[in-house]
Amino acid sequence: MKELLSQLPERQVEAITLRYFDGFSVDEIAQIMGVTDKSVRNFLYKALFSLRQTREVLISSILIVWSLSHF
After folding, report:
1. CATH tag for 2-69 (out of 1.10.340.30, 1.10.10.10, 3.60.110.10, 3.40.50.10680)
2. For 58, what's the count of Cα atoms within 13 Å in the CB-facing half-sphere?
3. What is d(CA 39, CA 69) in angstroms, rounded to the nearest whole number?
4. pLDDT digits (tens, 9 = 90+) for 28-71
5. By CB atoms within 10 Å of each CB, which of 13, 34, 35, 51 scores lowest?
């Protein structure tokens, strides 16, 4: 997970960490980061979107390797 997060922009990592690891609300994160609630939601959305895309690529790669090794 740490490696996946390291590929994201710093502000997205900060927002993800504060939200999902530290348990802060969007309002609290906005205050901590000195940005608007909308910006925090944007950071979270973009980070989660990127992580989902990375997950899909990893799953596809695993399936390809598995299928090639079984033929």
Report:
1. 1.10.10.10
2. 8
3. 45
4. 999 999 999 999 999 999 999 999 888 877 788 788 778 777 66
5. 34
Q: Where are the alpha helices (DSSP H) in the chain?
A: 2-6, 10-16, 26-33, 37-69
Closest CA to 18 of 27, 9, 59: 27
Sign of CA dihedral 9, 14, 19, 20: positive
* Confidence (pTM): 0.79
